[in-house]
Amino acid sequence: MSGIFTKAMARNIFYGGTVFFFLLLVALTFDTNKTLPKRDNSANLTPAVIAGKKIWETRNCIGCHTLLGEGAYYAPELGNVYKRRGPEFIKAWIQSQPTGAPGRRQMPQFHLTDEELDNLVAFLKYSSEINTANWPPNIEG
Ligand code: HEC
C-alpha cells in the first residue's frame, strides 16, 4: 500500500463525489426549469413575433448584428436597440438604408413591407423584454 489513501477511501470519495455532483445537477436543472418561464418572456410570443423572427433569420441580420450578445460584431447589438430607440425609429432606419458614407460600414436595403417591419419590431420588442439579467449592457458605441 502506498500514498495516504486506501483503496476504500478513494472509492468512497469517487462515489460520494459522483452522488454529490449528480444531485447538484438535478437541483440546478430543476431550478432552471422553474425559473425560465418567468424570464424567457414566452408568455408574449405572438404570431407577429414569430413572423418577425423569420424575417430576422431570412435577412441574416445576425450576420452583422448581435442579439442578446450572440452574433457578429460588425454592427450594433440589437437586443437593446428597441429600448433605446423605439419601434418608429427602427422602422424608419431600416427603410432609409443604406445611409453610411461611401467607404464606411453600410446596412443593406431589405425592401420590407409595412407588415414585415411591424413584425420585425414586434420580434425586437419581445427580445428586449427577455430577462437576461441586463446582459449585454445597454451601452452605445
Ligand atoms: C451587411 C451588414 C448588416 C446587415 C445584414 C444588417 N445590418 Fe443593421 N446595421 C448595419 C450597420 C453597419 C449599422 C450601423 C451603421 C452606422 O452606425 O452608421 C446597422 C444599424 C442598424 C440599426 C440601428 C442601430 C442603432 O443603434 O441605431 C438597426 C435598428 C438595424 N441595423 C437593424 C437591422 C435589422 C433588423 C437587420 C435584418 C433585417 C439588419 N440590421 C441587417 C449592418 C447590417
Please provide a written account of the structure.
The chain has two domains: 1-39; 44-141, Orthogonal Bundle (Cytochrome Bc1 Complex, Chain D, domain 2). The relative contact order is 0.15. α2 packs across α5 and α4 (87-95) crosses α5 (114-128). It is built from five helices and two strands; from the N terminus they run ααββααα. With 141 residues, it is mainly alpha-helical. It has helices at 7-39, 47-58, 81-85, 87-95, 114-128; strands at 66-67, 70-71. Bound molecules: heme C (HEC).
* Second CATH tier, the architecture of the largest domain: Orthogonal Bundle
**Gyration radius, rounded:** 23 Å
> Unreliable runs, pLDDT <50, ≥5 residues?
none
* Ligand types: heme C
The end-to-end span amounts to: 64 Å
Helices, by number, come to: 5
SS elements, strand count: 2
| CATH hierarchy class name of the largest domain | Mainly Alpha
Sheet of most strands:
2 strands, antiparallel
Strand order of the largest sheet: 1-2
Task: Average the pLDDT over all residues and give the rounded result.
Answer: 92
User: By helix and strand content, what is the structural category?
Assistant: mainly alpha
Within the CATH hierarchy, at the fold level, what is the topology of the largest domain? Cytochrome Bc1 Complex, Chain D, domain 2
Tally of separate domains: 2
Query: What would the principal axes of the Cα set say about the shape?
Result: elongated
Please indicate the percent range of residues in DSSP E strands (runs of 2 or more): under 5%
Order of helices and strands: HHEEHHH
Q: In percent, how helical is the residue content? A: 40-55%
